[in-house]
Amino acid sequence: MPIRALVWNENEHEKSNALVRRLYPDGIHGAIAKAFAGDAAVTVETATLDMPEHGLTQDRLDRTDVLLWWGHMAHGKVDDAIVERVQKRVWEGMGLIVLHSGHFSKIFKRLMGTPCSLKWREAGEVERVWVINRNHPIAAGLPEYIEIEYEEMYGEPFTIPEPMETVFISWFEGGEVFRSGVTYQRGAGRIFYFRPGHEAYPTYHNPQVLQVIRNATHWAHNPAAPWRSVGDAPNVPHDKAPVPLEVKGPRLHADGEEGYR
Amino acid sequence: MPIRALVWNENEHEKSNALVRRLYPDGIHGAIAKAFAGDAAVTVETATLDMPEHGLTQDRLDRTDVLLWWGHMAHGKVDDAIVERVQKRVWEGMGLIVLHSGHFSKIFKRLMGTPCSLKWREAGEVERVWVINRNHPIAAGLPEYIEIEYEEMYGEPFTIPEPMETVFISWFEGGEVFRSGVTYQRGAGRIFYFRPGHEAYPTYHNPQVLQVIRNATHWAHNPAAPWRSVGDAPNVPHDKAPVPLEVKGPRLHADGEEGYR
Amino acid sequence: MPIRALVWNENEHEKSNALVRRLYPDGIHGAIAKAFAGDAAVTVETATLDMPEHGLTQDRLDRTDVLLWWGHMAHGKVDDAIVERVQKRVWEGMGLIVLHSGHFSKIFKRLMGTPCSLKWREAGEVERVWVINRNHPIAAGLPEYIEIEYEEMYGEPFTIPEPMETVFISWFEGGEVFRSGVTYQRGAGRIFYFRPGHEAYPTYHNPQVLQVIRNATHWAHNPAAPWRSVGDAPNVPHDKAPVPLEVKGPRLHADGEEGYR
Amino acid sequence: MPIRALVWNENEHEKSNALVRRLYPDGIHGAIAKAFAGDAAVTVETATLDMPEHGLTQDRLDRTDVLLWWGHMAHGKVDDAIVERVQKRVWEGMGLIVLHSGHFSKIFKRLMGTPCSLKWREAGEVERVWVINRNHPIAAGLPEYIEIEYEEMYGEPFTIPEPMETVFISWFEGGEVFRSGVTYQRGAGRIFYFRPGHEAYPTYHNPQVLQVIRNATHWAHNPAAPWRSVGDAPNVPHDKAPVPLEVKGPRLHADGEEGYR
């Protein structure tokens, strides 16, 4: 069964800015979705902020294996209840790929538990994305670095938790460095953050950038059945314990009672 | 200058339950605070849910080096704005020690980004807390394990991020295991979760448990000046870059503009 | 193309001990190899200490995707040159699964850089292997724990580096705990240590134990081309740098010189 | 009691090369030792390759809290038995700070279990060492980066295990990046690798570089008593188990027998 990818984009710059519209006539989501052209192992759909429930209904998330996220000027417009829904699906095992300015999205900050802040500069400078973890599946098919002629600079410190794996680190013409490709697991869900992709440049037409996005989608896919009960705190009665017990000492909780949350 | 510790307790069971009141006549916070009796390197204060702003005003948090957190039945009563304030202070460098049922506190779930769920059983069984990372400062002065005669069981899977360090793992009489002492860093703040401490048992009178709490407070203290700007995303102008640049290509942002959040 | 697994066993207890021979008439390697019966995605071969070059010639290792290792009484008889050869192949991307008493094998100690020591007891006690990372591919198809009626106890502290992922933790009847399933990456190679498997008990006839071994073999397989140059330290001449440079300041090395090792 | 630091240097370039001698008239070890001038909390000694037992007798290592290591052209001349001795002391809790070309030292490769390879170029280019983990004790007192006018380039991939903490990442004028400050724990010992320090440049006269070395020495110091038995595998008799047991099933080991290694 193919991996069901869903590319989410706020799709706001495209409406208000002619330059972005010219670069991405099908929207940034449309350009990202082309990463999967010719990949029979992935089916891809798109969703945008202005759809009902931002295109992220429970039913649709339940049919999504890997969600890709691009947001920037409208982070604050994303409904908190939908962010919680997405977070729960990640915990259940849905993969999540957060792109570029998505570092400040509600969903990424919630999953990291950190500010996810950084330095930035929009000067069209050269970015060289070095492969650190050479034979990692996310780096499959890449040379030793990806060179991007025009990009926005993101600089350290990037206030994220220490990654599970550091796949890419970027060098910028203006003198900064940045951890550009990092992996995490939260609940059963795999998360990959990938830095490049400023809306004012044609980054999402770069075949190597698209290859990383395609690789990461395969990597983030967890074929296990969704872990629906991931947030539950079940009580194990004393007589159902792996080693059945007599209750000793005092108790506050009555039999069968739910835990506090 | 001594470490300024603040022990926070919801202090609700103590009001409603005679057993807890008998075990902890000064409140659970009072018992925990005694961990620092005789430790001249630490000054300790306490705060409770029913104080104005839960005793966690900005000013008081700014004067706190390490916060210890005990909560259970009243997690939901903790004000979201105060949780955000505490989270910001952790990012700035304040240490945080989360105790027992605090695994489900808003502050711990926010910092972890995961459900923090687990299995549980209240049967007064034996817990044996094994030291995994023997010469870690949090384990200083301990034998190879702490044996606690009566405790509530917490069982895996404990849905936390993979820890930076695993200091303790518990064995339970009824057959379960649990990662009972784990460390993290979020922003500049060090975080330690420590499992034992059910309100129906005298765990916080156990000298070894108090020693862990004291050790962890020393470990979690970050003497660096608070990182007040930890959440900022400063723009670095092209002519102030480490390697000054000419701007190339198109731009969306005007000079001096703030980033989107 | 199927994954090419190679099960290595010292095969010494089988020669000297009737009990082991009775439990494992085809050798421990023979029993482990049966994990792949019916798995068309894996081809399996075996090798033993008494073969020329321990059955681990360069050619054979080059044709191996995942190596499984069982050793105990003959760790010291494994030739250092062959251990180095295996280590190099792991760095190049060959997966390695180290089983039970293999914790003290030369290859595991070399890859970990730590003593890999532990406590132990041979008393035929119950081991309950808890799944910690529930939807990890290595835990696919398992219930919440594997119960093994008779096993040797291994107890913490297990002196390994902090794992990349903790997949299993064991509870023992006699009161100890142990990190029984842990993952690492070294160079391009993925490593999994799995605890159960004492030669005096029928552990390798347990279908759940075999399932973990099969799962881990799939997980450890890195389909990338071998990273043959993983140990090289290439010089990048100044005029071949990504940003070509003029040489400044003094130099010790002549052009084209090899680095020191 | 002050921290007892020992700076080890192969001291070979200083003998054979007039340039290095002019830069470091007291040897590289002499320059590094000056990091502790005015730090009353550290006493410092030095040792060199040409001393008996390379100046690293068991007695001297036993009196060392933190060992600093600089080596390059003579890695192969370091005696294997002494490398094992140093490794054991790290496991017991001695801190280790590996500097620059020490990435290819026997002791670092043994503790990492990886090739520790990298790219390099000697062109006197600018290195900018960015602080990634801003309030980490190793970064105390530093600005957002250290700029070094002339340095040898080291480029990724640096084949090390994923670090416990990434403290520094370097930017190089010629276009490469490198993880320049990384931490590990092996056994009870803390390890810090710090990149700058090519023998042909005055790097060890840079006050910020010396500050990192001083900070790291404080960080690496483990005040716990040495863990002498860190490599032992003690047998726990069934009647001395935390939960005393009757022996069940067959046994291979006789009572009191040592484990195999």
Give an overview of the whole structure.
- 4 copies of one chain form a homotetramer.
- With 261 residues, chain A is of the alpha/beta class.
- Chain A has helices spanning 13-16, 18-23, 27-33, 58-62, 80-92, 106-112, 207-220, and strands spanning 3-9, 42-48, 66-70, 95-99, 119-131, 145-155, 165-172, 177-186, 189-194.
- Chain A has a domain at 3-117 and 180-220: Class I glutamine amidotransferase (GATase) domain (Rossmann fold), CATH 3.40.50.880.
- Chain A contains 7 helices and 9 strands; from the N terminus they run E-H-H-H-E-H-E-H-E-H-E-E-E-E-E-H.
- A 9-stranded mixed β-sheet of chain A has the order 2-1-3-4-9-8-7-5-6.
- In chain A, helix 5 crosses helix 6.
- The first copy, chain A, is elongated and about 70 Å long.
- The model of chain A has no long low-confidence stretch (mean pLDDT 96).
- Chains A and B meet through helix 6, strand 5, strand 6 and strand 8 of A and helix 6, strand 5, strand 6 and strand 8 of B.
Give a brief outline of the structure.
The structure is a homotetramer of 261-residue chains. With 261 residues, chain A is an alpha/beta fold.
Q: Please report which band the strand proportion of chain A falls in: under 5%, 5-15%, 15-25%, 25-35%, 35-45% or over 45%.
A: 25-35%
The CATH architecture of the domain at 3-117 and 180-220 in chain A can be given as 3-Layer(aba) Sandwich
Number of helices of chain A: 7
Multimeric state of these chains?
A: homotetramer
Strand tally of chain A: 9
Largest interface: A-B, 71 and 71 residues
